[in-house]
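Dock fe (ii) ion; give full complex structure.
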Amino acid sequence: MLAFVGCVKGNPIEIGSGAQDGGTIAIANCGYSITTRLGAEAPTLAVDAFGDDATPRLVHLGFVGDPKTSMVAQWRTADEVTRAGLVRYAKGANLTAEELTETAPGIQFAYESTGGESPRMHQAHMCGLEPGTTYSYQVGAHDPVSGASSFSPVYSFRTAPDIVAHPDTEVVIGSLGDCRNGYDIWEQLTTRVKTYDPDLVVFTGDAVTIGITQYEWEAFLGRAEPLFATVPVVFAHGNHEVNAVNFFSQFAQPGDQENFGVDYGHVHLTVLNDTPAEVADLTGKTVAFLRADLEASKAATWKLAMHHQPVWSSATAHGSNLTLQQAWQPLYDQYKVDLVLNGHDHDFELSKPMVGQSTQSSVDKGTVYLVQGGAGAELYDNASQFFTQYAEKTYGASVLHVRANQLTLDAFRPDGSTIPAGFTKSK
Ligand SMILES: [Fe+2]
């Protein structure tokens, strides 16, 4: 039970006093539902309180449905703001607030966190969008009683392209991981990733030191807001997220938010949780999901997988995860996954192309594994083993450029200098 007492128009109210065992709400305009986890309230459209400060904070984008036609805007307010708010949006870049002629209703819920906090999250789901199109939007809320309103700045985003209609379209994907407790570097890197004008950002886990502490999530989302308010993020759960309700509450994602597939441009990206609440899932349910997802997407031009812990790493802190080598790599081999994105070891390492325990002579013949846990967390020592193409003890991030016939990966340090290990594969 939450016990926060807020104040609306001078009248004390008790808010968030509902059960914290989660719940489901249908998102009518999108044809799907949102389910919150144990530790969070059931989501609702609107209750009765505007609250003293409805200023939207930590605005960030994600998606639950098809990224060609949908987008989810998410934001925080002061805990007592139970009026759900809305998103105002319209097709076009850099529009004024007055030009945002479409609206979609918001939902809201609070969740329990450390320090007696009950952060209140809001989501507004935009559906029926046009592919490959730029939209402007802002989020916020009206108080119909007082007439007060609080809205965010106007931001822009781009939906995923329709590659059937436009097969030559290039998609740009920024990739980062492991920023916990290192948010100056994190801000530097997210600022630099934004200069590449990415369509999508993927995060390989460990945003925070421990997932139940809200203040680090505030830094993670706040320092990256210029990027995350304009580019949707897909987040792979890391061990430091500890399956906390904070993680599940703040990131709307497809499926169960842990294991899901995304089609974006010519890429099929499989996202997996390699530290699930039930350890047995690693070699059980998750393997079954991975097999089914890769089987269903085997016609995809480019197959990428993303999860936190490295299948192949020579770093001395963690190194290769042998369970994943045994349980998951055979499926990467079988379905010829092109590239696997991992973090957990706080350095940079790109593997040679691998099949089983053997290095291959060409990227056409095996899967390449990227370890890049250098988005701000204290660095670990790198090393070099038989599978290492290049390793360096450095902070950094990567950008993927994906076209129908070519996938490239460029990695860089926070100062923008190039990490001298690239990945280019043509088909
Ligand atoms: Fe980790």
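Observed: Confidence is low (pLDDT under 50) at residues 1-17.
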